[in-house]
Structures are given as structure tokens and as C-alpha cells.
Amino acid sequence: MDLVLVHGHPFDHTMWQPQVEHFTRRGVRVITPDLRGYGTTAADAEKTTLDVFAKDIAALLDELDLDRVVLGGLSMGGQIVLEFHRLFPDRLRGMVLADTTAVADTDEGKRFRRETADRLLREGMAPYALEVLPKMVAPHNIEALPHVAEHVLGMMRATSPKGAAAALRGRAERPDYVEMLSTVAVPTLVVVGGDDEFTPVSDARLMHERIPGAALVVVDGAAHLPNLERQTEFNDAVSRFIDSIAER
């Protein structure tokens, strides 16, 4: 079984370290790339649309000689998974959609993303990182899990402002995936932190209701990053999902 995990904004592949350790022990091959403009991958454009990210993942699968995989993503990563499904549905064995939304941005949302992109180029990542940390990680977890908060803050601060800005501009132009959801023909797990403000439980429920046979797990006590805030609960949910695919 091959599991490819796509990180969110503004993070890098290390956000999946607990999952890499857990699933590798279970004999699952886990692949966690840095997206274009994030982590160790350079930013090369003023705007990076989701189809570019999805095609990058397809090219990586080609390079690794992988035909079909379970593809999971969180937040922006989940939207990239949906775009991958739009472009390459035959390459999926299953999908994990974590703390994400299938709904396109409103005009106000598009304007906010573009303004944020300009802000990151102007100010750098540090002020933004401090501002959004209490939404990425629930405030009670910042206090109870300081190592998680430090990891999340470190990833955000280390992200290239140019890469983050390019992705924000691209996400502002993403399509609405809601109509596509009813066409999904692979097993799908929808996961969301119960305290997520960015992509609330209602967004997860919409995907769960529209995707045939989808499973939904709400992780209590977590905000936008349940894979880090509640690692055991998140890993158990994905483990059950992977086991169900293996049994088919």
C-alpha cells in the first residue's frame, strides 16, 4: 500500500512526521513531498494554481513508478487531492480529505487571499505565523502541547513568502469541486478537527454527504491540524480506512 500525503499552507512535509512513523511501522510506504514553493522546493512563479501542484504529484508518481495510490491532504493539500481527482481519477485507490473544503472562494475570500499574498511579500512570514497560530492549533493545545505549537510555528516562519504568496493567488482561482463530489468512485475518508475555524465541521459534512460511501471522523479537541494535535485519533482513523481498502 502506498500512501501519499500532501501538506497544507504554509507548511512543509514535516507536518506529516507522526504519520510517517506510524504507518511505516505498519508496513505502509508513506511519501510526503514538499510542494512547489514550500520546504526545500523553490518558488518559481508569482501564482501557482492547484492543477500545477496536482500535476507535480502525478509526475512524482511517474518517477517512483507508482500507478495508483491512496492520496491524502490537509487544508490546501486536501484541495490539491480534489484537483488530482479531477485530473487523474484512475490513479487513486482512495482519498483522505482532512480539514479542507470543496467550495470555491467567494469574491471576498479571493480578495482576502490576494491581500494576504501581498502582505507576506511585504512583511515576511513571521507576523502572519504568530497571528494564525491559535487557529492552526487550538489555544488549549498550544498550552498543553508546546512542542506541537513550536513545530507549527517553525514551519510557517521557514516557508518562503514568495512560494506562499504564489499558492494563495492560485487558490483564489480554484474551481468549485462540490458538483464533482458525487462522481467520486474511490473510498474516501473525511477528517476534521472539531474546533477547526478555517474549515469547520460543516464543510466536512458537506463532502461526507456528497461523496458516495464516504466516512467522516470528527476529531474532538483539535483545530486545523488534528494530525499533530491528536495524533493517535488521527492515525487510528486513517489506519482503519487503509485497512478497509486493503480488504477490498
Q: Over the alpha carbons, how many angstroms does the gyration radius reach?
A: 17 Å
CATH topology: Rossmann fold
Summarize the main sheet: 6 strands, parallel
The counted number of beta strands is: 6
Shape: globular
- What is the end-to-end distance? 12 Å
Uncertain spans: none
Q: What number is the mean pLDDT?
A: 97
Run of helices and strands = EHEHEHEHHHHHHEHEHH
The structure class reads alpha/beta
Question: CATH homologous superfamily, by name?
Answer: Alpha/Beta hydrolase fold, catalytic domain
Q: Level of helix content?
A: 40-55%
Description:
The protein has 248 residues and is α/β, with parallel strands linked by helices. The protein is built from twelve helices and six strands. It has a six-stranded parallel beta sheet, sandwiched between helices. Helix 2 crosses helix 3, helix 4 packs antiparallel against helix 8 and helix 5 runs antiparallel to helix 7. The longest helix is centred in the middle third of the chain and has 17 residues. The chain is globular. The model has no long low-confidence stretch (mean pLDDT 97).
Annotate the secondary structure layout.
Elements: E1 2-6, H1 17-25, E2 29-31, H2 50-63, E3 69-74, H3 76-87, E4 92-98, H4 107-123, H5 126-136, H6 139-144, H7 146-158, H8 161-172, H9 178-181, E5 188-193, H10 201-210, E6 215-219, H11 226-229, H12 231-246
What would the keywords be for this entry?
alpha/beta, 13% strand, Rossmann fold, 12 helices, 248 residues, six-stranded parallel beta sheet
Kindly summarize this structure in a few lines.
The protein contains twelve helices and six strands. By secondary structure, the chain is α/β, with parallel strands linked by helices. It has one domain: Rossmann fold (3-Layer(aba) Sandwich).
